[in-house]
Amino acid sequence: MKERVTVSSKALILMVIAGLALSACGSYQAFDYVDQNESMKGPGAFTGEDGEWVIYRKK
Amino acid sequence: MKPTWKSALFAMAALVLLAAPAGAQGPDAAKLKELTRIIEQQQKMIEAQARTLEALKTQVEALRTVTQANKAAMTATTEKVAKTTEQVQQVVRQVEQADTPPKMVTSSSDKVKLAISGQVNRALMLAGDGEQTDLFHVDNDHSSTRVRFVGTGKPNEDVTVGAQVEVQFESNSSSSVDQNNENNDVTTNSFTERKLELYFDHKKYGRLWLGQGETASDGTSHVDLSGTGLIAYSGIHDLAGSLLFRNSATNALTAIEIADAYDDIDGLSRDDRIRYDSPTFEGFKLSLSHVQGGENDYALRYSGQWGDFKTAAAAAWANIASTSTSTDFQTNASGSALHVPTGFSLTLAGGQAHAKAAGRANPTFFYGKIGYQKKLFEVGNSYFSIDYGFSNDRAQNDDEFQTIGVAAVQKIDAWGTELYVAIRNHQMNRSGIQLDDINVGMVGARVKF
After folding, report:
1. pLDDT tens-digit readout, B61-75
2. Residues of A in contact with B108 (CB under 8 A)
3. Does A10 reach chain B within 8 Å, measured CB to CB?
4. What is the SS3 string spanning B387-447?
5. Over the stretch B22-56, which tens digit does the pLDDT of each residue have?
6. What totals of helices (H) and strands (E) does chain A contain, helices first?
7. B235 with B408: CB under 8 angstroms?
8. Whole-model pTM above 0.80?
């Protein structure tokens, strides 16, 4: 049997703190995270940069 | 009869002769002769000038005629241009009034939009279980083949109303095929639901969702800035989740699937729910939802750029006691940081499910990935990653699962295409049985419409 691998909650907290410390190294700018597996944003092969056909009409 | 220069000269000459003394015959005669000669010479000059004048008069007359003709032609051209301009303006007015060609879709509202998008994601998957090797033609379940219709309306500046229909069509989903079921029979060979929902969004008060769609906690284990999530992310069971481990001693297939051994505890997935998202404040957003069956979940998301670092993170808590026979609630989180100048990224995810049964260990998982991205070719960005994950006590106490994988994705922007390749090793340890590793390689492409 191979040795079991675990991650303690202390280690996770340390990683979060490290991440926050890393984040504090510069000035904040807005950034919208988009899940690339869910997003339909372009470029698309036929739709171009937007990745979608837009039907936008008024009578 | 009008007096002329000629008659005037003769008159002057006569006066000179009459005025001359009677006795002046010799020198006076010569003088008179000379004067007569001068007068005749001047008369010839006057006649030549008269002819020149006449010729000039004729030329002026001709020029006047030409000018009048040009003026008439110019007037006709101007009128023609004005008429054509009027006709063009009339056509433009007609187009503006109609707004669209007659066969296009129209709406009675000028504040609505309908957008259509989609993708096809196909791959070849080669899998070896220690005894046999199979080649599968699959739909990559990391990001399935799908089509989406999104309608939005904006009654005023603050409010947006939206509706979304998104369905997928997976022929041979990579997460459903196994050694005993290599073709379409294994999954529903039809459209299946992903999102059938509507929402009301207010700039100040947030967004309310209603219908089948992402619960508040969905995706909270998947935050990933590496760019290889298309083929490698914390949901590693999307690659080949149904493949069966083989008993090393007997070489027989067991009933233990990869998805039995590993789960990324990614919230409540998509379901029929009501969900609320707060407005984003300094990069933070709070979400909560109530799901059909009595489940509920809460999530906190963050994204922002600090200096050279793009960062994103999410954490969630989900109560599934009302529908799950094994779990009361679960917690999970993930985060990713990308150092933009160098292209290196670090992604981490982890979670724990709290078991209902006494004596049952709480299943846990951890996932970590190091990524690198750079524009190596003009066609688009290149992404590389190496990742590692493990899961403990997933199906039963003391189960141990580990996985390691490498992946590469190449974007081709002009084609809306991503080419990808990945190799992954899966190891499973269970008390009382020795299992062979499963190795999987996948190569494929995702094309967005």
Report:
1. 999 888 888 888 888
2. 58-59
3. no
4. EEEEEECCCCCCCEEEEEEEEEEEEEHHHCEEEEEEEEEEEEEECCECECCEEEEEEEEEE
5. 444 566 888 888 999 999 999 999 999 999 999 99
6. 1, 2
7. no
8. no
